[in-house]
Amino acid sequence: MSFTNENGSGIWELSLSQRVVLGICLSLAVSAAIMSQSIDSAWPWLALGATWMTAAVAARGIYTQRGANRRLFGGILATCAIVLLASLLILAERVYYTGNMHYARWLTNGELAAGTTWQDLMAGPCKGRSPLEVNEQADGQFLIRCGLLWSNSKLFLSTTFPEEGRK
Amino acid sequence: MSKYLPWIKRNLGLPLLMASITAITLGIYQAREATATQYAVLEQMYLDGTPEFRAALAELVDEPLSRWTYFGLSRAYWEETRALALPHDVPAPEIDSATARRALWDTVRQRTSRGRVP
Lengths: 167, 118
Description:
The complex is a heterodimer.
Chain A (H helix, E strand, L loop, with lengths): L15 H21 L6 H22 L2 H31 L20 H6 L8 E5 L5 E5 L7 E5 L9
Antiparallel strand pairs in A: 1-2, 2-3
Chain B lengths: L4 H27 L4 H13 L2 H8 L8 H15 L15 H15 L7
Helix pairs in contact in B: 2-4, 2-5, 3-4
């Protein structure tokens, strides 16, 4: 497999715009890690940057390779596109959730059973998922969310504020 | 390694420079003293926090707190009290940081035996 295009530059070379986007991802990773004082917060942004870089290489590979290699790069690009689209949707959900008093019920995991306490939540569906947030909805119900991003969070509706049993 | 160094310089130089500038800028920003609102939030956390959290804050009494320290204490408060949310609904005090800091440490001293006025 030759990784050189007609201009003589390899497919591993990133264009200026691709380097800038990668720089933005790295900057966001650094910001997240510094603000939260935890390297864990940086991983999603680093993963996004790595996916972006892979997509950039695969996109160039499609134009420079033929046959099986081209199909391989096509597959890689399609996978990266799906991952990037999913990331965008997850971020859009977070923006939609923030401060929204009319959160869509179908995006939640249903209603909490009556009498569910804070400890029940932390020992059950919310175990290992943080932060835990509670937002009042326009209909008077409480939207309880554990986990920052929708992909790794649980959302419940409750008619009562889950303060009972709080440490 | 030297084989890949030109490629790293060419392709990762700009992204790494951008990340470094961000890190330095944020580092300088975070090293500044906490704002009056952050001191007010800490005061509320102190009143609502666990004994361990109160002890940790009492250790810092009379010191000006950086934003690093504020975020560190916020994390500790979050983890120890398992709070539903940080008390961010504290109204922004219309005072400067120094006055808010004195108010925080006055509250801490009133609650700790060593600072209690007989």
